[in-house]
Amino acid sequence: MGLITQILTLPLAPVRGTVWVLDQVLLTAEREYYDPEPVRAELAELEQQLLSGRIGDEEFDRREDELLDRLEWLEANQQRLRANS
Q: What is the biggest distance separating any 2 CA atoms in the chain, rounded to whole angstroms?
């Protein structure tokens, strides 16, 4: 970028900085949202609840199906994102 361009676009610097910060926040939020580890941890906790008798088989099956569907969706999304990178 030339000196004149920098001088002329100087008033836009705060906007560019704000856009960059928002982009970084969005990337971090997406990374956390698509992270399968919390779902895996929840599956492990669910199994512990079943083994300790805090939940029954029906509730375990229902919640496990929901978590496995979410995990499958997350892993498919990760593969799609890697393919597009």
A: 72
In this structure, are residues 36 and 75 in contact, taking their beta carbons and an 8 Å threshold?
yes
Let me know: does 34 contact 81? Beta carbons within 8 Å.
Answer: yes
Structure-token pair, residue 62: 């229902």
Q: Other CB atoms closer than 10 Å to residue 53's CB: what's the count? A: 7
Only one residue has tokens 């008798």, namely 53
The CA distance from 11 to 18, in Å, is 13
Confidence of residue 39 (pLDDT cuts 50, 70, 90): very high
Contacts of 77 by beta carbon, 8 Å cutoff, 6+ apart: 34
- In whole angstroms, what is the distance from residue 33 CA to residue 27 CA? 10
pLDDT in tens, 41-74: 999 999 999 999 999 999 999 999 999 999 999 9
